Amino acid sequence: MTTSNNSKGKRTIIGFDFGKKYIGLALGQELTGSARPLGAVKAKDGIPQWPDIAKYVNEWLPDLFVVGLPLNMDGSEQQLTLDAKKFGNRLSNQFSKQVIFQDERLTTADAKERLFEHGGFKNLQKDNIDALSAALIIESYFEAQYNA
Prior knowledge:
Blueprint: E1 12-17, E2 22-29, E3 34-44, E4 47-48, H1 50-60, E5 64-69, H2 79-95, E6 98-103, H3 107-117, H4 126-146
Helix pairs in contact: 3-4
């Protein structure tokens, strides 16, 4: 795995909201503790078009990846959790970057609520939801780091 060019606290992060049909992406900056949606890529049974992900990686040159971990409300794993872990491992191997998994419970519901507040039903497009969910996953990771 390649080591980061930036020290902890100054890293650029790409976050992923894993799904079987779409994978949302967002960009985060540790320095500001903020993240913004980038978009979504299509996937077939959880396998993305890797060149689509490579475009984001080559454009933003992240230091690490954060992949949302879809857990049941009681914290237990489900099939989608295992699929997200497999995606994260492939992502790490494909781009030689560290992958950190972050609990993503309730991020989709939160994303839908925020999007609806800022544009109503027309704003609730799948790629908007997935990309904003990815941003919320990164922000959740930042909060966990600052509170550790």
